[in-house]
Design brief:
The protein is about 25% helix and about 30% strand. It starts with a strand and ends with a strand. The strands form 2 sheets. Strands 1, 3, 4, 5, 6, 7 and 8 form a 7-stranded antiparallel sheet that branches. Strands 2-10-11-9 form a 4-stranded antiparallel sheet, with no helix packed on it. The protein contains 5 helices and 11 strands; from the N terminus they run E-E-E-H-E-E-H-E-E-H-H-E-E-H-E-E. About 25% of the residues are buried. It is of the alpha+beta class. Helix 1 packs antiparallel against helix 4. It is globular and about 50 Å long.
Length: about 230
């Protein structure tokens, strides 16, 4: 229940005008294979997760959908703790009544931010959540029942390496000639960071997201890493 607590790197050039991103499948943003190896050796730590919900929902419906998904996550991973925006900790323990927990969890405090299109309509809702867990987001996505609920809700779930209060993230392009099947995501991120550090000891925070990319005519499709940064 709840308790009170407390690349100037050449490959990072902008997108080719002849290419465009297409909406990725629900598991396109999954961490690379092998990401959950050794998970039982991990220590509990605090992580941030980014949820992207459909823009067709109004704010109240989006909030309800998000809370249902987080409640499902907590009941599926009983060692995971959710810290809401009022700094209350929520966890589902063995022996708790699931129906009572889900009902109480409907009062958890979350923030949703609208991302609008050129017509000033909400294209999607974004929420950044704080968790304390020994699991990874890849582990969560490997849980069939939980992630089936995420897919059915047309919701995306990403790691969030940026500050808790920074939700406005944008893609600045993709890495050319680097296929996601041939380069490990974490190792590639480290290589780029090392390249940048050789020129700048204060490298910017960025995130690599594997996505499908197609040309404008939609006659060719490949998988590459897009680069995401805070929108300044």
């Amino acid at each position: 229940m709840a308790s009170d607590t407390l690349e100037r790197y050449k490959a990072l050039a902008g997108p080719n005008p002849d290419l465009t991103l297409i909406h990725e499948s629900m598991d396109d943003d999954t961490e690379m294979a092998g990401g959950n190896r050794g998970k039982f050796d991990r220590e509990e730590r605090e992580i941030l997760a980014k949820w992207q919900l459909p823009g067709k929902l109004d704010s109240a419906s989006a909030k309800r959908q998000l809370l249902v998904l987080i409640a499902e996550l907590l009941t599926s991973f009983k060692q995971t703790i959710f810290i809401d925006h009022k700094k209350r900790e929520w966890t589902f323990k063995e022996g708790d009544d699931e129906d009572i927990f889900v009902k109480e969890f409907g009062n958890a405090a979350v923030q949703l931010h609208p991302v609008k299109n050129k017509q000033n309509r909400v294209a999607r809702w974004i929420s950044i959540t704080k968790m304390r867990t020994a699991e990874s987001i890849s582990d969560w996505k490997s849980h069939e029942y939980f992630y089936d609920q995420v897919i059915e809700a047309k919701t995306y779930l990403f790691p969030h390496p940026f500050p808790y209060d920074e939700w406005d993230i944008t893609s600045i392009g993709f890495l050319k000639e680097i296929h996601t099947a041939h380069f490990n995501q974490d190792h590639l991120h480290w290589l780029i960071m090392e390249y940048i550090k050789a020129q700048d000891q204060n490298p910017p925070v960025f995130q690599l997201i594997p996505q499908k990319i197609t040309n404008m005519e939609k006659t060719a499709v490949t998988r590459a890493y897009t680069v995401q940064c805070m929108n300044c």
